[in-house]
Specification:
With 331 residues, the chain is an alpha/beta fold. Helix content is 54%, strand content 9%. Strands 1, 2, 3, 4, 5 and 6 form a 6-stranded parallel β-sheet that branches. Helix 3 packs antiparallel against helix 4. It starts with 9 loop residues before the first strand and ends in a 6-residue tail after the last helix.
């Protein structure tokens, strides 16, 4: 996509359950891009990568103003590229606090600010070979439909910033590669992006991250081993000492889910011995599953066993973390 000569935006929509590595993948793309990993493969080094993710988890990105401000923040850190936008934003701030003006004036000034943002963004698109943007937690683009919304017949109208992003931002920009990552619970976003592609407004690629195959799980162990060999020799020795069959058992019980595999690595950092569930020979587990038709039960027990081991560990911040888990978001 970076090498495409087309000015049409290319959107990659990456979906997977939580903990499967979507955020890490987007971070790696931005990090590698900024470190010129792809310099020799691209047409030019004149590519603008966002300084960080735009994380739609944060409530300040759930309005047009907030989302635009964050996009400007990740693209224009001390570069002064969005001059018209900043002028119009300052004017909007002035209008908001001028009580003599009516709401229509505020709405119109907000529209002028958004138009200035699009104009400045496309100036950047003309200046650079490509602009690379990454949005995380895309499921927060649309709020869940509630009972009142459904009762009023408004269930088909999404509440959130998805409408602005899909209708008023992406179709109006050019020379941009957009990475969107989110959980698969919001199929409507994929539908809307598909419509834009059908109408020739964007190039669109949907990537659904899957679980690891057994070979990939084994490769994951080797990769982690190389990383921790210098950082933590004790964990590295524990990893190195795990027999091949035990790693295969781990893959079988975890279904190759990246979250469970990484959780197991974390478990090794604090555990003195392997879980009994994975010390059983693979054939014995498979025979038990075949007799009792209980593969899912075995996998559930494995997951629960790891979580229980973590719960047994007492740390100074445990009570603080438990308390924070009950506090409303934003406190």
């Amino acid at each position: 996509a970076i090498n495409e000569k087309s000015d049409t935006p290319h959107v990659f929509y990456i979906t997977a359950p939580g903990g499967w590595g979507k955020t890490r993948l987007l971070d790696a793309v931005l990090k590698n891009g900024k470190e010129n990993v792809w310099r020799e493969k691209s047409r030019s080094a004149n590519i603008l990568f966002a300084s960080r993710l735009v994380d739609l988890y944060h409530t300040y990105t759930h309005s047009e103003e907030g989302l635009v401000a964050d996009i400007v923040e990740v693209l224009d850190r001390q570069r002064g590229e969005f001059k018209s936008y900043f002028q119009q934003r300052a004017e909007l701030d002035r209008v908001k606090y001028d009580l003599s003006l009516i709401l229509r004036d505020i709405f119109q000034q907000r529209e002028r600010m958004i138009d200035a943002f699009i104009e400045d963004f496309n100036k950047i698109g003309n200046k650079y070979e490509k602009v690379i943007l990454a949005f995380d937690t895309a499921e927060n683009l649309v709020y869940e439909t509630d009972r009142v919304q459904a009762a009023l017949g408004l269930a088909e109208e999404p509440i959130g910033v998805e409408g602005w992003l899909v209708r008023n931002f992406i179709p109006k920009i050019h020379n941009t590669v957009i990475l969107l990552a989110g959980r698969p619970e919001t199929p409507q976003l994929q539908v809307e992006l598909g419509k834009l592609m059908k109408n020739g407004k964007i190039r669109f690629t949907h990537i659904e991250l899957g679980t690891f195959a057994e070979a990939e799980t084994l490769e994951y162990f080797n990769a982690v081993l190389e990383i921790v060999r210098e950082e933590n020799p004790q964990i590295a020795n524990r990893l190195k000492g795990i027999p091949l069959e035990t790693r295969q058992v781990l893959h079988y019980l975890s279904e190759g889910q990246p979250f469970l595999l990484s959780l197991f690595i974390d478990y090794l950092a604090v555990a003195d011995e392997l879980l009994p569930e994975i010390r059983t020979p693979l054939n014995e587990i498979k025979n038990k599953v075949a007799l009792e038709n209980g593969l899912q039960r075995e996998r559930d027990e494995f997951r629960d066993a790891i979580l229980q081991e973590f719960q047994k560990i007492r740390r100074p911040l445990d009570e603080v973390i438990r308390t924070l888990s009950w506090t409303p978001k934003g406190m």
